[in-house]
Amino acid sequence: MSEIHTIYGLTAASIPGIRDIAIVGWIAVCISTTATRSRQKSSRPYRRSRGRSHRGVACRAAADREAVVDIVNLATPGTGDAFVFSAPSFSVQECEINGERQDFYDYAVRNNLDLKQPLVTDLHGEFISVSFKGI
């Protein structure tokens, strides 16, 4: 939850032309909840030439070069309930669930939401997932 992670996470999707330029990056998040600790512990970018991991890495390719990067996401969208959030945020109180405005906490408790499983969406052909830090 560094300052740059927060700014990028909340504003990147609204930057005009953001999908038209080559941006390569990674934010490795260490989540402190027991439910996700083992899964997130090994989630780190790695620079082979230096033999060490980093908390974040970004790269911009020169005009005559091409960066080839892919997203590896083992999570895929399921067939369960559909969530719509009104604005980018790292926390939420209410959201739309299956077309009905609901309190997210009440929904999570009522449905025994598994915090080990992320919310996953298809964003322009890439599966993007959001893990839970807590409820």
What does this structure look like?
- It is built from three helices and nine strands, in the order αβαββββββαββ.
- It is of the alpha+beta class.
- It has one domain (3-130).
- The strands form four sheets. The protein has a three-stranded antiparallel β-sheet.
- β8 (119-123) and β9 (126-130) form a beta hairpin.
- The longest helix is centred in the N-terminal third of the chain and has 9 residues, at 3-11.
- It starts with a helix and ends in a 5-residue tail after the last strand.
- Residues 28-43 have low confidence and may be disordered.
Give the termini distance in whole angstroms: 17 Å
* Strand arrangement in the largest pleated sheet: 5-6-7
Cα-based radius of gyration, to the nearest Å: 17 Å
Order of helices and strands: HEHEEEEEEHEE
Question: Quick check: average pLDDT?
Answer: 74
- Percentage of residues in helical conformation: 10-25%
Into which percentage range does the β-strand content fall?
A: 15-25%
Shape: elongated
Structural class: alpha+beta
Total tally of structural domains: 1
Biggest sheet descriptor: 3 strands, antiparallel
Number of helices: 3
Counting DSSP E segments of at least 2 residues, the number of strands comes to 9
Uncertain runs:
28-43
